[in-house]
Structures are given as C-alpha cells and as structure tokens.
Write a structure and sequence with these properties.
Blueprint (H helix, E strand, L loop, with lengths): L1 H33 L4 H34 L8 H30 L5 H10 L2 H21 L7 H30 L3 H14 L10 H16 L3 H21 L7 H21 L2 H25 L1
Helix pairs in contact: 2-5, 2-6, 3-5, 3-6, 5-6, 7-9, 8-9, 8-10, 9-11, 10-11
C-alpha cells in the first residue's frame, strides 16, 4: 500500500521537474530570440554560431560538393590556397565596413527622440556584440584554415565552411543595417516601443528600459511633439498606443486598476497635453486628447467593475 502511494508521487515529481525544465528552456530561447541577455552571453552566442557553422560545413562539405558536381557538372568549391587567401582578405574588409556601419547605427540611435532607457533597449536588441564576435571569430577560423593549408587545391571540407562563414557574415551585416535603416527611415520606433512594452509585461525576462512608465512616457512625449507640430491625426495615433498599452497592462495585472502612482502619472500627462493643445488654439487637438482620456477612463472603469 505504501509503495503504490509513493509511485504516483515520484511520477508527479518527475513531470513537475520536466515542466520546469521546459519552461526554463523556453525562457532561455525567448531571451535569445529577443536579444535580452548579458554581454558575455552575446559574445558566447556569436562565437558559438561561427563555430557551429564551421563544424557543420566541415562535416557536410564533401557531400555538398559531390551533389553539386552531379547537378552543375563542375566543382563550385574547387579553388586553390591563393583564392582562399583572397576570400580571407575580402572577409576582413567586410568586417571593416561592418564596424563602420554599426558605428553609424549607434550614433543615429543615440539621437532618437525617446527615453534614454528605450534607446539602450534598441541598441541592446541590435545584437551588435553577437555580430562583432561572429565576424571576428569567423575571420579567425578562415585565417587558421589558410595558414594550415599547403599549396595546391583546397579540400571541400575546408572550402565549404569558409564560404558559409563568408556569406553568413555578409547576410548578418546587411540584415542589421537594414533594421537600423527601417527604424530611422520608416519611423518604426513606435512599433518597436509597443513591442518592447508587451515583452516587459510578459514578465519572462528583464527589460533594459526599466519601469513600464518609460514606454508610456515615450508616447506622451511623442504626443507633445505632434501637438507642437499641429498634427491632430498623428496625435490620435500616439495616444491610441497609450490606450492599448494601458489595456494590456490591466489585463496582465489586475492590481494596476488601484495603483494611484501609475494613474497619477497617466492623468498628469493627459492634463499637460490638454493644456498644451489649448495653447495651440486648435480644437481638433483638444478633441483628440479628450477622446483618448475618455477611452482610458472607460478601460480602467470596465476593469475595475470586472474585479468587483
């Protein structure tokens, strides 16, 4: 009787540990996908990715060569040591241009019109440390292959991983640079801030921006700029983001409905926006602020009623 009672307990304990292990693995993978981890982890991820690509290319290089030879009827990886040395030099040049591009990205991000904490989060998610460590470690791997080879043709288990690292480096740099251009030229900052706020509310990982007020503050400050520019339609769009985030916040944490500090922050900003719109002497601006404030009021009241 005692044994039969202990067996289910053992299985329950194993299932609980497996569930906890899956949850931890999911959080680790989520943090890696979002780019939210320490600098040392970023360095480790970049070097590990280069090493994995090199090992994978070394193992499948001969097979890929034979397959391509049958399909294309010529050896795409048949090149000599001097050509591999040229590839190594071109890869080093790509690193130089990549560092210049990333420096440009960092300088432009610092001038974004938002909270310094959000700027830090944008820079963090650029994965600059991973890119730099990947590029440098890839160049070391290609250089080691060049120095270890003798004169003559390069075997496919060396040429294929060198080619993979070369093209991966090029793709990673272009993808990151495109991300920065999209952020600067297509005004996707608001979309990113809203996404960061939702990630922050998930509670599954630390957000560099800190308090949730930083995300709301971004849209309040953006609303002030729209009022000064006399653009009511854009003002409504910014304030709508505030309503969305507050609604999501109330869904995630019911105690927020009675958090006087948060609501003081929200209503004081709305009061500031309303006074600013009055100075502009534009009734459309005033109507947009009042409409948004009414929306926030009904969102908070409906949540409060649901609790009671």
């Amino acid at each position: 009787m005692g044994v039969s009672e202990e067996v289910p307990d053992i299985f329950d304990s194993v299932r609980m540990r497996l569930r906890q292990g899956y949850q931890k693995l999911y959080i680790i993978l989520l943090r890696a996908y979002k780019g939210l981890y320490s600098r040392w982890w970023g360095l480790f991820i970049g070097c590990s990715l280069a090493l994995i690509l090199a090992i994978g290319g070394y193992l499948i290089g001969p097979h890929i060569k034979s397959i391509l030879a049958r399909i294309l009827h010529f050896g795409i990886f048949d090149f000599n040591k001097s050509e591999l040395s040229t590839l190594w030099a071109v890869h080093a040049t790509i690193i130089g241009f990549g560092l210049v591009a990333l420096s440009f990205a960092w300088n432009q991000i610092q001038d974004l019109p938002t909270d310094p904490g959000i700027i830090a989060e944008v820079a963090h998610r650029l994965r600059s440390i991973e890119i730099i460590s990947f590029l440098l470690f890839s160049n070391l791997i290609i250089g080691a292959a060049v120095l270890r080879l003798g004169d003559g043709s390069v075997p496919p288990e060396i040429g294929f991983p060198a080619g993979i690292l070369f093209f991966a480096s090029l793709v990673f740099i272009l993808e990151r640079f495109w991300h920065v251009l999209d952020l600067l030229l297509h005004n996707t900052l608001d979309d990113n801030v809203e996404k960061y706020a939702r990630d922050h509310l998930s509670g599954k990982f630390h957000s560099p921006a800190g308090d949730f007020d930083s995300y709301l503050g971004h849209f309040f400050e953006a609303s002030r700029h729209e009022i000064d520019a006399d653009r009511p339609d854009q003002l409504r769009e910014k304030l709508r983001r505030v309503e969305i985030l507050l609604e999501v916040l109330l869904e995630k944490d019911e105690t927020v409905a009675t958090d006087t500090q948060l609501w003081d922050f929200v209503f004081s900003n709305y009061d500031s926006l309303y006074r600013r719109s009055i100075k502009q002497q534009n009734e459309e601006l005033e109507e947009q602020v009042v409409a948004s404030l009414s929306g926030v009021y009904w969102i908070s009241m409906n949540r409060w009623r649901d609790q009671n």
